[in-house]
Amino acid sequence: MSRLRSAFAFFMLVFCVSTSSYAADTINIFAAASLKDALDEIAHTYSAATGTEIKTSYASSLALARQIEQGAPADLFASADQDSMDYVATRKLIKPETRVDLLGNQLVVVAPASAPDVQLQMTADAWTAALGNGRLAIGEIKTVPAGKYTKEALDKLGLWAALEPHLAMADNVRNALNFVARGETPYGIVYASDAKAEPRVKVVTTFSESSHAPIVYPFAVTANSRGDAATKFLAYLQGDAAKAVFTKWGFTPK
Asked: In terms of DSSP H, where are the helices of 82-123?
């Protein structure tokens, strides 16, 4: 009986070590939808080089923050705005010493690639004429960072009142992009990185950076993350190789 108990104890020790090693070598990343192409490429390269398994979940930043609050198993959170990161920070759901502002972006107007070339002026008359009976696709203004930046910009330019009746709001910026890519709306407002990732759209105009708050992507390791795999990957994201990929996909590394 003592031998059986000893064998069982040894088995449990091996099992615990194995499972803890597995957990340390697996990273669950919750990231803003606009990061998908760049982060997928970086994660693939990193996994191939290190053997670390990286699992990604993409959605609007606030939706992800709320999932983390509800106990979703995230190791690393990448937000498209400070507000969503602040949401988890004030609830002590991240390791504050790991928080870093990693990337910047630009807000652009896109149209289907097949649409005629136009010079879209930032006036209410030009916008309403260009839209006609169509809609303007944007991210939801209360929960999607791109939507919040868009409302701020349109307010500052005096366009919000004229354009609000024409809006088609999406639950994340990539879905707003898809409205335009599929020809369901004649225009959309997304990030420059989204336009870079979608060959079915083209950039019509770029918003002045002075029209809205700086677009910043903060990253942080979550409070519940175990081991150092997420911290190591976050360090890699700040290195030259990852920065080159982010730049290729239209982001501006900090």
From this structure: 82-90
pTM to 2 decimal places: 0.86
Q: Does position 185 have pLDDT exceeding 70, yes or no? A: yes
Q: How far is residue 245's CA from residue 241's CA, in Å, rounded to a whole number?
A: 7
The distance from CA 16 to its chain's CA centroid, rounded to whole angstroms, is 34
Alpha-carbon gap, residue 133 to 137, rounded angstroms = 13
DSSP string covering 192-205: HHHHHH-TTEEEEE
pLDDT of residue 74: 97
- How far, in Å, CA of 149 to CA of 81, rounded? 9
Helices vs. strands in the chain: H and E counts, helices first: 11, 11
210, with CB counted inside 10 A (0-12, 13-18, 19+), is exposed
Residue with tokens 């420059």: 192
**In this structure, what DSSP letter does residue 109 have?**
E
Helices 145-156/173-181 angle, 10° precision: 70
Question: Average pLDDT over the chain, rounded to whole?
Answer: 91
